[in-house]
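Listing S7. Sequence submitted for prediction.
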Amino acid sequence: MATLRELYLTTLLGIFFILGTVNASTYLSIQGPISTTLYNNGSVYLGKVGPGESFYILANASTTNNSGYLVNIGWDTIKATKLPSGWYSQQSPLYENPMKIRITVSQNATNGRYPLTLKAINVNNYSKLGNLTFTAYVNVTTNVFALTVLPKKLYSGVDQPATLYININNTGISDDPFLISAIGLPSWNVTDSVISLHGKKDNFTYPIFLGQPGLYKFNLTVSSSSSSLVSESYPIVFQVNTTLYNDYKALGSGVILSPVIFEPAYAFMSFLESLYSYIFH
């Protein structure tokens, strides 16, 4: 007959075995656009994305099997098994590590929260992991970045460039390029394509020059290259004159395109512009 001590030790070992079995569950380690660990039939909220934009889900191929042993290349690919209407995906290439699946939102997607069903696959169940299914949620909205533009008023001489300074804070999960353009200026049709990665703030410059004097009002516009619905604009006033004062002011705030040998002269004229502003303004 078992003693009380033997019963106690047997019970304790049984508890440790059960706990060890629970902790040995197969998992999926998500690396982007957020970091988290998922188990079978788990769910995760990824963040915001604009209509028509694309984003990536990155995951590590390593996991543990049900016995608790590490399997370095356990998952071989990730694919989407159910997406909203009009959305599409590019399955992660086989044996890529980290795995990376690309998902593109429908251009016609309205604002709201959408579920995506995805599956991590162990091809032919070689490592005896089976498959791991999870649900990812994203919020579709046109409000996926914040824009700051300085200055609000530009001064320039004829054919003398002036520069706008632009800060893009990408609060969404897409890394699609942004397009910077000036809307409303005559004979000016220059669009710059820039990259501001998700979760990052980046600074850019946008030079403008015109060949005719005048007072111009236009919008500095930044939009997603994937959708014109994802767009922000700043109203800018651009004063272009042929006066000596405005030529000096443009040199003080513009982009120098002339050879380096002329830089001392530009610096001196910029100093004169600052002195003139201090005395007479």
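Caption to Listing S7: primary sequence and predicted structure tokens for the chain studied. The radius of gyration is 29 Å. The domain at 145-242 is CATH 2.60.40.10 (Immunoglobulin-like).
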